[in-house]
UniProtKB/TrEMBL annotation:
Residues 185-249 form the 3-hydroxyacyl-CoA dehydrogenase C-terminal domain. This is L-carnitine dehydrogenase. NCBIfam families: PRK07531.1 (NF005716). The lineage of its organism: Bacteria, Pseudomonadati, Pseudomonadota, Alphaproteobacteria, Rhodobacterales. GO terms for molecular function: carnitine 3-dehydrogenase activity; NAD+ binding. Its main location: cytoplasm. It comes from the Bacteria. It is found in: Cytoplasm.
Length: 491
């Protein structure tokens, strides 16, 4: 399978797809008759490049090649994935599929970004209906992992499996919608909230800002990590879900919502909503709002990684699946050259590591070096299982030198070597680089500890042995410049 994706329609969503594929190493070909498409996609890419690479703790592959094409056949020929993101009009989409299928490979997947059409509707006039599935993403496509994968009865399981594999490889979460339905799953939920919000503005109950505050200060944060049912299960107290329904079920019969009606979108209502929205957010340009949104989304998703929950767990699994490809090993047996410093970090600088000076903040250097130490511990056999059995290393002393700056999205690598390993002591030297540029060094003294007594003790033979192999091999390297450096006493 080629790693070429064709993006048909390069607006808000097509631009996001282009960024998602490109930053995951695919070549991307765009077809969009809009003469502004290249500029618009360029701006989406600028935002994606600063936010997506640092979302996980493992670097993404080298970016693919982006090209713009004057004709649809030129864009789709030879592509393994074709993503349609033209405006939400059934006739237009059907025409696009006919043109795509006249030129694309029979084995390619054709995904549609449609928010509402069922796959069987899209497949209506297609030459090969089995090739077309709904792959409905969420904005910003380059950061949000959800993609609703909706097949119809015309799609064989192999096409669904192929689509799932590609989307998972892009770090996405393909939610297989087993039974096609208008507006899939998520947009049905969103539309219900949207309709109710329009009523609240229409009836003069709340402004656009008050409604947004009702979401973002409360249940919006809650939904980001547990969704609806798990949240309500907890809200039922010790008696759980059944008790929750017994208590709040009857409210559903009360006139709490107007869900089935839609307010008429008169000029006056549209003007009211637009001017409230201008008052709320008009101080920022759309691109600035996108950057604020991306900073926040990255922070939220990254906060779920240590708890291995929801979108954080998904990102961790994606990192784990790619770590070998990015040269990160788990065990001494996988180390190709034991005499060379070991690659212990290969990642991009995330947005939440950037400070008011516009570069990676000092605490995050220690964060990265601590993660490098953790990986080195793992490589010599101090694994999570060993730690759970009662042994570990504690850091007794650290010295970091800050040599150069790193910006958001910069790819950083840390290489680690053993300076000394004697009895319970392990002295490590880490060097952090961006390409050829040295960014920082760190020297750590660690002690092996018995976690039940909290006292330092020598490591068991299997760990001591692995450590000694590195120590002996690294002793042949020149002593790095800066070893043993201290800030020094004031004169
Ligand atoms: N905007 C959103 O929040 C979301 C939209 N979607 C879906 O994504 C699709 C696209 O929506 P947006 O990106 O928002 O629209 P958009 O209006 O931003 O972009 C559509 C693009 O398609 C191009 N286009 C029009 N006719 C074309 C043709 N024949 N061939 C190639 N390109 C053509 C236009 O020039 C434009 O750049 C729709 O189906 C929509 O329902 C899905 C998820 C979220
Ligand atoms: C408004 N919308 C129906 C186009 C929204 C979506 O389809 C998904 C999203 O990103 O909210």
């Amino acid at each position: 399978m080629s790693r070429i994706a064709a993006v048909i329609g390069g607006g808000v969503i097509g631009g996001g797809w282009a960024a998602r594929f490109l930053l995951n190493g695919w070549d991307v070909r765009v077809f969009d008759p809009d003469p502004e498409a290249e500029r618009k996609i360029g701006e989406v890419l600028d935002n994606a490049r600063r936010s997506l690479p640092g979302l996980g703790n493992v670097a993404l592959p080298e970016e693919g090649r982006l090209s713009f094409h004057a004709t649809m056949p030129e864009a789709v020929a030879g592509a393994a994935w074709i993503q349609e993101s033209v405006p939400e009009r059934l006739e237009l989409k059907r025409k696009v599929f006919q043109a795509v299928q006249a030129a694309c490979d029979v084995g390619a997947v054709i995904g549609s970004s449609t928010s509402g059409f069922k796959p069987s509707e899209l497949q209506g006039c297609a030459t090969r209906p089995e090739q077309i599935v709904v792959t409905h993403p969420f904005n910003p496509v380059y950061l949000l992992p959800l993609v609703e994968l909706v097949p119809s009865e015309a799609n064989p399981p192999e096409v669904v499996a192929q689509a799932k594999a590609v989307l998972t490889g892009l770090g996405m979460y393909p939610l297989h919608v087993r039974k096609e339905i208008d507006a899939h799953i998520a947009d049905r939920l969103l539309e219900a909230v949207w309709r109710e919000a329009l009523w609240l503005v229409n009836d003069g109950i709340a402004t656009t800002e008050e409604i947004d505050n009702a979401i973002r200060y409360g249940f919006g944060i809650r939904w980001a990590q547990m969704g609806l049912f798990e949240t309500y299960r907890v809200a039922g107290g010790e008696a759980g879900m059944a008790h929750f329904i017994a208590q709040f079920g009857p409210c559903l019969q009360w006139p709490w919502t107007k869900l089935m009606d839609v307010p008429e979108l008169t000029d006056a209502l549209v003007e009211q909503i637009a001017s409230q929205s201008d008052a709320q957010s008009g101080a920022h340009s759309i691109r600035a709002l996108e950057r604020i949104r991306d900073n926040n989304l990255v922070g939220i998703i990254r906060s779920l990684q240590p708890t291995n929950w929801g979108a954080g767990a998904l990102q961790n699994a994606h990192d784990q699946a790619r770590s070998g490809d990015m040269g990160l090993v788990q065990d001494i047996s996988e180390v190709a050259d034991i005499a060379a410093p070991v690659l212990t970090i290969n990642r991009a600088v995330p947005l939440d590591w950037i400070d008011y000076n516009g570069h990676m903040t000092e605490a995050r250097y220690l964060d990265a070096f601590a993660a490098a130490t953790d990986r080195f511990m793992q490589i010599i056999g101090c694994t999570p299982e060993y730690i759970a059995s009662g042994g570990s290393f504690f850091t007794a002393e650290t010295h970091i030198r800050h040599i150069d700056e790193a910006r958001a999205g910069a790819r950083i690598q840390v290489r680690t070597r053993v300076l000394m390993a004697e009895g319970k002591k392990m002295q490590l030297w880490h060097e952090m680089v961006e390409g050829e540029r040295m960014l920082a060094t760190a020297e750590h003294m660690l002690l092996h500890v018995d976690l039940s007594t909290r006292r330092s003790v020598p490591p068991p033979p299997q760990i001591a042995g692995a450590l000694q192999r590195f120590a002996a091999a690294h002793a042949g390297l020149d002593l790095p410049e800066g070893v043993g450096r201290a800030v020094g006493a004031p004169r």
